[in-house]
Amino acid sequence: MTSKEKELLKYRFQQRWGQAICVQQWAKEGKNGWTKEGAKGEADIARGYMYAIGDALEASMKQSKATEIVRGWADEAEEKLGASLE
Predict the structure, then answer these.
(1) Residue 78 burial (10 A CB sphere; 0-12, 13-18, 19+)
(2) Do 86 and 43 form a contact (C-beta atoms < 8 A)?
(3) 68 half-sphere exposure, CB direction, 13 A CA radius
(4) Is 70 exceeded by the pLDDT of residue 63?
(5) What pLDDT band is residue 83 in, cutting at 50, 70 and 90?
(6) Which among 48, 29, 39 is positioned nearest to 85, based on CA atoms?
(7) Alpha carbon distances (Å) from 62 to 34, 46, 54, 58
(8) Fewer Cβ close by (within 10 Å): the C or N end of the chain?
(9) Can you give the pTM of this predicted structure?
(10) 29 with 40: CB under 8 angstroms?
C-alpha cells in the first residue's frame, strides 16, 4: 500500500467516524430527524469500518499495529470535533 493510499483510507475513515459522532449528537438533540436507534446504526457502521480498515492495513502493510494506527485516526477525528463516539 502506498502512502497516498494510506492517506486516502485515513481521510475516508475520519469522515465516516466524524459523521457518526455528528449523527449521535443530532440524535441527542432531536435534530435532523435522527433517533438514538439511527445513531447507533451509524456508530456500528463506523466501528465496522474501523475493523475493516485495520484488517486491510495489517494485510497489505504487514503491520501488527494496524488497530493502534486506526484508533489513533479515530482519536484525531474526535479531538477535532471535541466529542467522542459512544
Answers:
(1) middle
(2) yes
(3) 3
(4) no
(5) very high
(6) 39
(7) 39, 23, 11, 5
(8) C
(9) 0.86
(10) no
Instruction: Fill in the DSSP letter of residue 29.
Output: H
| Average confidence (pLDDT) over 57-67 | 82
Q: Which three cell numbers stand for residue 46?
A: 463506523
Q: CA 41, CA 35: separation in Å to the nearest integer? A: 10
Q: How far is CA 82 from CA 19, 22, 74, 77, in A?
A: 13, 11, 12, 8
Contact 24, 78 (CB under 8 A): no
The cell numbers describing 36, all together, are 438514538
The pLDDT of residue 53 is 93
d(CA 80, CA 60): 28
Residue from 52, 53, 45 nearest 17 by CA: 45
pLDDT per position as a tens digit, 20-48: 999 999 999 999 999 999 999 999 999 99
